Amino acid sequence: KKYNPSGQVQWQSTEGLSRVTNDHFLANTYNAQGETFLLSESAGDPVVTKFADDGTQLWQAIHSVGEPSYIVHKNIALNSKGEVYTLLTEGTDAGNFEDYLLRFSSRGTSSEKYPLTDLILWRSGQGIVIDENDAIYVMGSTKSNDLFYPALAKYDAQGNEIWRYVKSTDVGKWPEFILIELDPSNNLILLGRITEDSGLVSSNTVLTIEKLSKSGQVLWQKKWENPGKGTDYIQGLQTDHDGNIFFAVNSYFNYMEGNPVYYTAGIVKFSPGGKKLWDYLDQYDQNGEERLFGFSVDVFGNALFATANGSITKLNKDGDPVFRRDRTGLTEFQYFRLLNFEVDENANIYYNGFLYQLNETTYYGTKLSEGFTCLRPDGEVYWQNEGELSFGSFFINRIEQPNSLYNISTKGEYSARHIRLQKYDLGSDSTVVVTGDKVLLKAYPNPIRNATIIEYDLPQPAQVKVAVYDVLGRHVSTITNGAKEAGTHSEFWYPGGTADGNYFIVLKAGGKKAVCKVTYLK
After folding, report:
1. Average pLDDT over residues 40-58
2. How far apart are alpha carbons 68 and 75 in whole angstroms?
3. Rounded Cα–Cα distance for residues 179 and 247 (Å)
């Protein structure tokens, strides 16, 4: 389905996978051309399906596993050649498991698996990322003296190991990696935790965050311990254009320490150099309903999170609340359950979920309604929809211009179901995005053929930096960096040998920030 900016249907189309045999969706990825890649299991085999931006199925590749039992992990990554990588574990029991890096060719005509020697995927957190040079990083664990330690290994496109980093710790402490992310400079951010046994029914956990260079050198290592002494469960990891690091947690406070049992959502921000800038724990409610369910960082460096009961909170770059939007009008026996939460490149907010009515005697829930909501950056409702966007798992392609929203759902009975991919036009094609009351930024002509004029107004003298970044947040060029007087200023950007595509012009002046999206066409 395609929606206009007011949420009205403009057209509808259905595309199903060519193979309809109990498909089970696992993960997805996409590129700047609006092409989408879905990873699924189908009739016991890993499957990758590629769709064009208009919904046409370009190819579908099935890797036949054969007799051994296996696990297809919920990880998918795409390199610059269009090759797709995922992770696979084969074996009948823990002692005989073998782990592989699985590659699908760019045309979907072949697949090949490479053994991950002594890298274990099933024991701890696993993940895969690919940098701009097509180097592959796989997160898992390794075994030494009957103990398991978290590990990160770097591979080339043919599965040859280049280096491996293994994290060790003291006896009685159990480290693990949970999430991995690449920052704008292609450094690796590893988020994990260390659990220390402290009795039969309790343990202490400390979160760890470390930064590695692409050569495997440890740049810094830090720890974060919940100021409320809760047990923390990692929910998300993201970096902004400046390389600041954000992670989200659910904190579980244990009644054995004198606290009621409840979860509270938390966001933590570190600088690129490893300094903790702030942490924010949302202790708005102590009845177990503040579990963090969604997390994102927008183009301006604001952190946003949603909780299971449908509240949306936005924090500015200093960790101060900008707004909080709660579900209102619910009776004592009604509750809302969030399903998905996303933010587009223009800082608009999207989420869906269900409203339930509890039976006062049995406490079983009956679904009353379902809905999809789009909020503007200030938290006000932009549009709402009660159709198929209300369920399924949706994502926003933030590197496609303009952004589009895709909904993934299943169709058919369990024994013969298939995955359905639908695309929605968000209408978010504004070429100028502005923050602050009086700092204005624009670029023209746009699209760019040879050069563009970058024009901005300053209400007062300020230290100004104007820089260009690509859609992955990598620095492309610095236009100006120095003191400027109040008034209107103009700069020129000559892309020259820069590749075709979409870019962000970012202005920082006197604590304010403005972002302008441009397109370069040679």
Report:
1. 85
2. 20
3. 10
Q: Where are the domains of the chain?
A: 433-520
Do the beta carbons of residue 298 and residue 338 sit within 8 Å?
no
Identify whether the C-beta of residue 193 lies closer than 8 Å to the C-beta of residue 178.
yes
Q: Find where tokens 């050649």 sit.
A: 81
Look at residue 390 and give its three-state secondary structure: helix
Give the closest residue to 320 by CA, choosing from 285, 259, 279: 279
CA dist., res. 234 & res. 208, Å (int): 11
- Cα 478 to chain centroid distance, Å, stands at 27
Residue type, 501: G
> Residue 447 pLDDT more than 90?
no
Reduced to 3 states (helix: H, G, I; strand: E, B; else coil), residue 320 is: coil
Q: What tokens were used for 383?
A: 């549009």
Q: Are strands 136-144 and 127-130 parallel, antiparallel or unpaired?
A: antiparallel
**Rounded Cα–Cα distance for residues 190 and 139 (Å):** 9
Give pairs for 195-199: CB < 8 Å, separation 24+. Answer: 196/172, 197/172
Judging by beta carbons within 10 Å of its beta carbon (0-12, 13-18, 19+), is residue 198 exposed, middle or buried? exposed
CA distance 191 to 189: 7
In the CATH scheme, what architecture does the domain 433-520 have?
Sandwich (2.60)
| Token pair 């490893």 in the structure block, residue | 274
State the pLDDT at residue 220.
97
Least confident of 52-56, 107-111, 287-291, 468-472: 287-291
Q: What is the 8-class DSSP label of residue 92? A: S
Compute the average pLDDT of residues 250-262: 61
Q: In this structure, how many other beta carbons lie within 10 angstroms of the beta carbon of residue 288?
A: 14
How far apart are the C-alpha atoms of 264 and 290, rounded to whole Å? 5
CA atoms within 13 A on the CB side of 439: 21
Tokens read off for 281:
């724990």
Going 172 to 178 to 180 to 181, the CA torsion angle's sign is negative
The number of angstroms, rounded, from the C-alpha of 125 to the middle of its chain's C-alpha atoms is 16
CA separation for the pair 175, 167 (Å, rounded)? 8
How does DSSP assign 264-313, residue by residue?
Answer: EEEEEEE-TTS-EEEEEEE-S--SS---EEEEEE-TTS-EEEEETTS-EE
d(CA 398, CA 401): 8
CA gap 223, 202 in Å, rounded: 20
The single-letter code of the amino acid at 89 is: T
Q: Give the phi and the psi of residue 388 in degrees, each rounded to 5.
A: -70, -15
| pTM of the full structure | 0.78
CA proximity to 63, closest of 45, 76, 75, 49:
45
